[in-house]
């Protein structure tokens, strides 16, 4: 099992051959499209598209299971908070209140509230898989070049590239240190209690963070000595010009965004109302 949470992995397929800039623009435009509308039909379509792209990228479940489970926990917590603070919001949106569970007073659950919460959950399945796909199929240097292509300063782009390269290294170091500590008798697996595991992991993480800050300072000094940032522009070794597939990807992203905006006009609002 991989120790990395999320990071670039070499693979084969059309997603790996696309330019980082086209994938980044596609992710941004489709995310905006998914966030703009609550039309269940459109969001379901985007979810199916995201799952299809996952299948095409041949990303293994074990490589992303931890992140997906973490996001799922956050999503469920968010849905619970939305329901607790506004259990009648769905009824206000759809103009109707058909109770699933009555007798709970203020917290009575309606089909409309369930439908609204279902739409919220679907939004996670639209945007999160696309973000993971982008990170796992785009080389950090190409990601930096793509940011610079769309107008982001190359200084910021390079900082992002270094971060994406450095985070997996820190993760590897953390797991290496943890395994060596376990070999010395310090129990950090699920056999130990929760408090013991938290304390033991913090004892590893804090010194690792401090040593990482020292290395960041070393890298910054080395870049300054090489006059990094002197010129207004720079070239990129991993720069990839747009090809036919990239233009088709951009056309698809723009079409999906326009479809999302058109559905807002058709539905006379952001919400699709099956009870209308």
TrEMBL record:
Keyword terms: Membrane, Transmembrane, Transmembrane helix
Compartments (UniProt record): Membrane
Domain of life the protein comes from: Bacteria
Record-annotated membrane-spanning stretches: 24-54, 66-86, 114-136, 247-266
One Pfam family here: CbiQ
Membrane topology type: Multi-pass membrane protein
Stated name of the protein: Energy-coupling factor transport system permease protein
Highest classification ranks of the organism: Bacteria, Bacillati, Bacillota, Bacilli, Lactobacillales
